[in-house]
Amino acid sequence: MAIAHNLGFPRIGRDRELKKALETYWRGEIDESELRQTGAELRAAHWQLQRDAGLDLLPVGDFAWYDGVLGHSLMVGAIPERFRDGAAEPTLDTLFAMARGVSSHCCGGPAGPASELTKWFDTNYHYLVPEFSLEQSFQLSWPQLFEEVDEARALGHRVKPVILGPLSYLWLGKAQGFDKLELLERLLPVYGQILDRLAGQGVEWVQLDEPILALDLPQAWKSAFERAYHLLQRAPLKKLVATYFGGLEDNLGLAAGLPVDGLHIDLVRAPEQFPQILDWLPAYKVLSLGVVNGRNVWRCDLDKTLQVLSQAAERLGERLWVAPSCSLLHCPVDLRREAPAEANQWLAFAVQKCEEVALLVRALAQPDAAEVRQALADNRAVLQRRASSRHIHKPEVQARLAAVEPRHSERAAPFAERIASQRERLQLPAFPTTTIGSFPQTPAIRQARQAHRQGRLSDVEYRDAMRGEIRHAVARQEALGLDVLVHGEAERNDMVEYFAEQIDGYAFTRFGWVQSYGSRCVKPAIILGDLHRPRPMTLDWIGYAQTQTDKPLKGMLTGPVTMLMWSFPREDVSAEQQARQLALAIRDEVQDLEAAGVSIIQIDEAAFREGLPLRRAGWQVYLDWAVDAFRLCSAGVSNETQIHTHMCYSEFNEIIEAIATMDADVITIETSRSQMELLEAFRAFDYPNEIGPGVYDIHSPRVPDSSEMLALLEKAIERIPAERLWVNPDCGLKTRGWAETEAALANMVSAARQLRERHGMAAVIPCDV
Ligand SMILES: CN1c2c(nc(N)[nH]c2=O)NC[C@@H]1CNc1ccc(C(=O)N[C@@H](CCC(=O)N[C@@H](CCC(=O)N[C@@H](CCC(=O)O)C(=O)O)C(=O)O)C(=O)O)cc1
Ligand SMILES: N[C@@H](CCS)C(=O)O
Ligand SMILES: [Zn+2]
């Protein structure tokens, strides 16, 4: 009989228990043993949920205090010098210091900025980038995995530890001035020790995640795979190499031939790998088929999936394993937590996905069992109901889209002409200072929203409370001397969810939390059907904010690509189609803001880079529709209206041309943790429009001083003409407190003023530059 297993379970908790415990610990309100207790309770609950769902083999090692890659760095002793405290072994506080940074005036321990945070492949999860030095050594330093294996076994579970594989780990890290692959020989002995120790604990199978096998790999890395796994071969336990987020393609032969005992492939992202894989797999190996989508929330089409599995079972017998396509980290925890709604019948969250995997395995073994037949019949009926639902197909939305012409994606004049009109209108100083949009989402704001949701605060009371927050944010910005103000986004629960709630065609959850980084979560909305905007979404708030100041105030919207990437999309129509529907909805809002006199409109495309397919072969198709969606939503304004965009993941080297084609008048980007290195692409391409490279990292509570920001701006000026440079933080400030926000922004404004003096720049940039 096939084995039902799982690659990883969400760790944050159904009610975000881990988030709450972490934040309470960081505030000093609970001690380490209380935090650890919450972790243990969550792990126990999650293993039990998976076991109750019917899985045979449960993952251990998928729990992390902040991030799995960070935990792995601790395990192999890759701890940057600035976080080493002289202590022999790292502590939980070492881990949190690496994740969050430490201010020099705090705690008396080592100080320094946090490690870089970046996107986990093409997901909305962020990991902490390992930092490698030339003298890097590795040693087993963090016993968490072994302790959790004991913990799970003591609870009576059959476990499969999950570890990030050595090649993917090195690939995801950062090495300054040398080839990080050179570290492999130093790293592998530690992997050997880890595997030996797990074997000593009685572990039979270990899962080594090597998602980079789904990427275009240089030959040196392909060869390194063979070398590495040959060396790890002697460890006395069975190894399953797990690949996901894409197909193996040219790495198929390599992956199938590695000297390990099993291979997991993602058949949701790359169904074409089957049945070809059967011909490549050595006869002794287990094949784990990832057939239940770990990246979306739709129920699995069980009939269709069983056709594939039955064929596989015929060839593989007991060597067939069944699993979700990837870790379920990217899914909400449990659909049973939601209130009843028509759409629920179409959905499956992590717990339900485990049940689907178990059911598929049962259906293979006992296709005629009454409960199996019933479950398959139910599944069929549900899928049919969805296909014919009136919530999905809206002829008026489709007709509007069909009438779109290329001219709708063209600004009236080229950038050089537009910027002159905009400078004339805006009268901004050189190096204009601004922020990315959000100001601190304080407990008071969140509590007001909760009270409003629960009916304890009327619509008018809620509006007045948010207007109070807007007045406060505007007044603080004026006092700080910022040049372009924002309303602060107090009224938004999230930059995507807020808009999704106002666009017809979306569905929402109440508890569908997914970890984004550390303790921060998002609740992605679900695109059910055709999308349109029935009424203005931001006009009242932004109009109100503009009445509070004479300075220019940026209208703040989320762009179509980001709306799509950070939602759970439909699978019955293309991503392009969904992005174009969203673009029209946002275009309507842009035009309403312009008509209301808003002179600058920022359309955030924070997820633009993340949407880029993992394999280069898919890039152009994506870039064409993604750029066009942005242009479609932004191009309908006059030359005097300045369009900004913002992206928080700025590795643009290879797509800078597409970024330029978006033709935003100003782009603000995240660059501070990379010390402005990411601007190199803009310099090399001679990017024509204006740029605001982030001068400080907003993910950390640390307040950088103005000299630090000035130094970064000087680096920026080496790469970008001074008259096109803006000054802003890396991203929005919603996660920060007011005290640190004001301190950091005051330093930022001071840095901009010093820069103006140093470079003798005019107070107002002339229009003909
Ligand atoms: C820019 N980022 C975003 C990404 N994806 C998004 N969808 N949105 C983003 O902004 N991806 C990349 C980055 C990731 N960065 C972040 C940064 C910050 C957060 C974050 O702060 N998340 C919040 C949850 C936000 C939210 O939905 N808030 C709601 C509900 C708040 C709440 O918990 N209410 C309580 C009651 C009130 C209380 O006591 O505090 C409750 O309901 O129980 C709201 O404001 O109404 C987080 O807390 O993690 C995410 C990604
Ligand atoms: N306007 C948003 C962008 C985040 S990427 C914010 O400031 O939070
Ligand atoms: Zn951002």
TrEMBL record:
Every Cobalamin-independent methionine synthase MetE C-terminal/archaeal domain range: 431-753
InterPro entries per the UniProt record, alphabetical: Cbl-indep_Met_Synth_N, Cobalamin-indep_Met_synthase, Met_Synth_C/arc, UROD/MetE-like_sf
Binding site for Zn(2+): 646, 648, 670, 731
Any one GO biological process: methylation
Active site: 699
Molecular function terms from GO: 5-methyltetrahydropteroyltriglutamate-homocysteine S-methyltransferase activity
Superkingdom, taxonomy of origin: Bacteria
Catalytic activity: 5-methyltetrahydropteroyltri-L-glutamate + L-homocysteine = tetrahydropteroyltri-L-glutamate + L-methionine
Cofactor remark: Binds 1 zinc ion per subunit.
UniProt entry keywords in alphabetical sequence: Amino-acid biosynthesis, Metal-binding, Methionine biosynthesis, Methyltransferase, Repeat, Transferase, Zinc
Functional pathway: Amino-acid biosynthesis; L-methionine biosynthesis via de novo pathway; L-methionine from L-homocysteine (MetE route): step 1/1
Domain Cobalamin-independent methionine synthase MetE N-terminal, residue spans: 4-315
UniProt-annotated binding residues for L-homocysteine: 436-438, 489, 604
Residues engaged in binding L-methionine: 436-438, 489, 604
Annotated EC: 2.1.1.14
Binding site residues for 5-methyltetrahydropteroyltri-L-glutamate: 16-19, 119, 520-521, 566, 610
Cofactor dependency: Zn(2+)
Enzyme class: transferase
NCBIfam families, sorted: met_syn_B12ind, PRK05222.1
Function of the molecule: Catalyzes the transfer of a methyl group from 5-methyltetrahydrofolate to homocysteine resulting in methionine formation.
Family, per entry: Belongs to the vitamin-B12 independent methionine synthase family.
UniProt-recorded name of the protein: 5-methyltetrahydropteroyltriglutamate--homocysteine methyltransferase
